[in-house]
Amino acid sequence: MSDKTINLLEKRKRQIHEGGEFVMEAEKQSLAGSVSQRSCSFCGSRVVLYPIADALHVVHGPIGCASYTWDIRGSLSSGPELHRLSFSTDMQEKDVIYGGEGKLYNALVELIEEYNPNAAFIYTTCIIGVIGDDVQAVCKKVQNEKGIPVIAVDSEGFKGSKKEGYKAACDALFKIVGTDDATETIPKSINILGDFNIAGEIWVIKDYYERMGVEVVCSVSGDGRVEDIRKAGRAQLNIVQCSGSVSNLAKMLETEYGTPMMRASYFGIEDMSKALYDVADFFNDDEMYEAAARVIQEEVTKLVPRLAPYRKDLKGKKAAVYTGGAFKVFSLVRSLKTIGMDVVIAGSQTGSVEDYKMLMELCDPGTVILDDTNPLELAKYVKEKDVDLFIGGVKERPIAFKLGIGFCDHNHERKECLAGFIGMLNFAAEVHSSVMSPVWQFAPRRANR
Amino acid sequence: MSCECGKTCAPVDSPENACTSEDKAKCGCGPSKADTPPITGKNFTATRNACKLCAPLGACLAFRGIEGCLPFLHGSQGCATYIRRYMISHFREPMDIASSNFGEESVVFGGRGNLNEGLKHVIEGYKPEVIGIATTCLAETIGDDVGMYVKDFIKGNKDTISMPHLLHVSTPSYAGSHADGYQWAVRAIVDQLAVDGPNEKFIGIFPGMVSPADLRHLRDILSDFGMPFSIVPDYSDPLDGPVWGEYHKIPAGGTPVSEISKLGRASAVIELASTISEKQSAATLLDERFSTAAFRVGLPIGIRQSDAFFKVLEQITGESIPDHHESERGRLIDAYVDGHKYTFGKKVVIYGEEDYVVGLTAFCAEIGLKPVLCASGGKSGRLKSCIQDAAPELDPETEILEGIDFAEIEEAVTHLKPDLLIGNSKGFSLSRKTGTPLIRVGFPIHDRVSGSRTLHLGYKGAQRLFDTIVDKLMELKQDSNDIGYTYI
Q1: Which residues of chain B does A33 touch, with a Cβ-Cβ cutoff of 8 Å?
Q2: Residue A150, pLDDT above cutoff 80
Q3: Looking at the complex, does the CB of residue A127 fall below 8 Å from at least one CB of chain B?
Q4: Average pLDDT over residues B445-470
């Protein structure tokens, strides 16, 4: 049953760029039956809100959605760890027939009494809208009784891809912003949006900013706290990482509080340095700029000699990169260049046409660019391009491993800190440990050489 | 339904009518602080850290064990993606699951259009011999009649498309767990493929949700008996295969449709299960429809359950147990003797799918361990009676609980203070919190590399389980004193 040729589905061809004239399409609903690597709106909402560690996260629906997202990510908390528990109304047949409002109400009241959260997020799953539960009304009642924000997140899976879920999560977050008494702006302060504190990454980034004299008011949502989110409107600048997940919140903060937003990425030396300099530029503060330069110099001086041995081994090796959002791909292309590697396949689940155009310009000619791809297409191109490394998430891992290709997990389940300058070193070590393993000599594709 | 508090309990027509905790405490119409069970703590309406998964996962696993089959979920994209991720983290193998990718218009107008389009794309892209379609809770709730859609799809396209077998199963996750979904799918596979015909000399086996290593071992046992056999489904190769040179759209292996279609004509079929209902049983279906001789024995974990399994094989084949297995049994008993002092009276908590819990409890009881809680997220209503049948020496006070979640298991563990936990890797957080060592068995094992290769069944499986458990107990004994004994 082995297929030497994997043919592209006709309707998928316009979401793939193999060189030549750039005519890609993107941001389309996934093709039915294409085995998309994407997920659903529920997943998008869950991803954004998950790391808020002092909130109760309750999934309203049958059990699956809660089971599959229990302690799923490496988002760390410096304090409470309520986010690592999984709560579900576990809807049964009779609840589907008669409605689940009563069950949800009882579940919430008991859980709030038991766990004393500072807020509760109620995620609606596919069937909740269909059976007509008035989740908003239940939330309102519980909020009034318990005196904490109890917020319905409209995350029915069929509403779209992760992007629609991101938006629902941002709407939920925005309901908490401004619910404290203070209103005055905090000087030289920022919010870090769109970082999820995987393996403690936000602590690394926060440390750099603090060394520059910048105060971090709130992080959304890595190591997140309800109290901090309340204050989010008081920061002077929003730094937005991750392609789209928290952009909507930044936009709402801009409209409502006039806080400007700035994009950043913390992966790789260039993007990390830029993220620090941009903030100093924004505040137009010479002292801060010098502090940023000092941080960068100190870190890079330590880092560069330690990267050298990895670069020596990895030079000229080829990589494929496929992630959820497109913005991370840019950073990864640059990071891989830093360690001497070339990206020959790049793509994302949710990028826009503009993202892919930028990506094409950043990559070498002939790089294959993929939007919302699937296992068969990935297998086809990693074989054709003969890559040494695949960077992706758990669903991409077996494609790489089955074909005897090294793999680096750059998704939310990873346990390695890959952000910041230290993250660049960890990234190089991680890539090196896979690409340079002696086990590939036994894989058919290498053994035949 | 109304109660003494004068309000409507469940179902409620509006949140205002729902009982408050105080109401419930007064009239006892729902969980309250007053009726605290001793072992699992307070009763919660919510499921906290579920000890079960949704039904479509079980169906996808069963379909993966059919040769040339691609599982297909009728519903939103996320279901397929989450289940893929969950299974890949255990099996560490490609696990493609197609989806009909519902959008809002599918919910309003029904999912037929998406199903048809999805099937066409899957047929074009994967060229499968079989597509196994399972429904998600969304498709079930909007009332999609997948059976009819599939029939119409075949009728409308059979002249233009080289049509694979299209199997379908209804797997609403609000009506059962992943273990139920697996059984429903196996029964649907048999229901839709088995046809009448002249009898043939072979044995059909329904192995249950066991590991690829278990399936391989079953193949070895049956081969040694010398009668042809067919294991349905058999995902041992698709989910524990070799590294590839070329990408396989659908991994090689699995039970061929041709074998499944003649199951009704088999000499006998054996279903390895304890707690499943007649309605879930593929063996019962064959018995009713084709009068096939149907045997049911529990998962053969430990000596007694394996003996029962071998006895049935002896009966069907007329051959006595092959020497090789007889001596494996002898060595196992010898090992039981060598290790008996380390296991005697040690308290264990066992959890997982109900059939696994039955088998593991019988095994633990026969080696002198003392199960203090046998728990499952499943709700067959038969767990207790099946355990009592399989492990007659079990203390009648042993807690046997269905519909449990990990938060309740944790509370019970805190109370019962067992020496070991035996179950899947989802018990790790409570193992860590309570300082109780965990012996990983079953599905899923997300935090070790050996999930696919975990052997449970037969004398060989019992040997592996016994060694693992006794080694762990010896290690605990060695580590828990200051002397540093080098002989234990």
Answers
A1: 72, 98-101, 117-122, 125
A2: yes
A3: yes
A4: 98
Contacts of A86 in chain B (CB under 8 A): 48-50
Residues in chain A closer than 8 A to B54 (CB atoms):
62-64, 67
pLDDT tens digits for B225-241?
A: 999 999 999 999 999 99
Domain check: are B31 and B96 in the same one? no
Inter-chain CB proximity A403 and B247 less than 8 Å: yes
Domain count, chain B: 3
Whether A92 and B175 lie within 8 Å, measured CB to CB: yes
Angle A128-A130-A131 from CA coordinates, rounded to 5°: 70
B247, A94: Cβ pair inside 8 Å? no
The pLDDT, as a whole number, for residue A6 is: 83
pLDDT in tens, B111-166: 999 999 999 999 999 999 999 999 999 999 999 999 999 999 999 999 999 999 99
The reply to whether B422 falls in a domain is: yes
Q: B394-424: per-residue pLDDT in tens?
A: 999 899 999 999 999 999 999 999 999 999 9
Same domain, A165 and A196: no
pLDDT digits (tens, 9 = 90+) for A19-61: 888 889 998 888 888 888 888 999 999 999 999 999 999 999 9
Task: State what percent of residues in chain B have pLDDT above 90.
Answer: 90
Which residue segment(s) compose the domain that B430 sits in? Answer: 334-479
Show the domain range for A390: 315-414
For the ranges A231-235, A249-253, A324-328, B363-367, which has the lowest average pLDDT?
A: A324-328
Q: Do B11 and A99 touch (CB under 8 A)?
A: yes
pLDDT of residue B25: 52
Using a CB-CB distance cutoff of 8 angstroms, which residues of chain A are in contact with residue B172? 62, 93
Q: Are residues B382 and B416 in the same domain?
A: yes
Which tens digits make up the pLDDT trace of B17-65? Answer: 656 555 655 555 554 444 445 688 889 999 999 999 999 999 999 999 9
Question: Chain B partners of A29 at a C-beta cutoff of 8 Å?
Answer: 101, 103
ipTM for the complex?
0.95
- Please check the confidence at residue B12 and state whether its pLDDT lies above 50: no
Whether A114 is in a domain gets the answer yes
Q: Kindly state whether residues A155 and A263 are assigned to the same domain.
A: no
Residue with tokens 């090789």: B324
Q: Which residue has the tokens 């007649």?
A: B278
Chain B residue numbers touching A99 (CB-CB < 8 A): 11-13
Q: Where are the alpha helices (DSSP H) in B158-274?
A: 178-193, 212-225, 257-261
CB contact under 8 A, A106 and B122: no
Q: What is the mean pLDDT of chain B?
A: 93
- Say if residue A370's pLDDT is above 70: yes
Question: Domain count of chain A?
Answer: 3
The domain boundary, picked from B142, B176, B210, lies at B176
Among B13, B46, B251, the residue with its CB nearest the CB of A89 is B46
Which of the listed residues B131, B146, B176 is the one where a domain comes to its end? B176
Q: Do B412 and B36 touch, CB atoms closer than 8 A?
A: no
What's B152's domain CATH number?
Answer: 3.40.50.1980
Q: Which residues on chain B are in Cβ contact (under 8 Å) with A376? A: 125-126, 247, 249
Residue A437 inside a domain? The answer is no
Interface test with B, best of A86, A98, A124, A409 (most B CBs within 10 A): A86
| B136 and B27 belong to one structural domain | no
**Across the interface, do A105 and B407 touch by the CB < 8 Å criterion?**
no
Mutate which: A155, A158, A407, vs B, most B CBs within 10 A? A158
Residue B155 CA to its chain's centroid (Å): 35
Q: Which positions ≥6 away from B174 have C-beta within 8 Å?
A: A62, A91, A92, A93, A95, A96, A127, B137, B140
Question: How many A/B residue pairs have CB atoms within 8 Å?
Answer: 297
Mean of per-residue pLDDT scores for chain A: 94
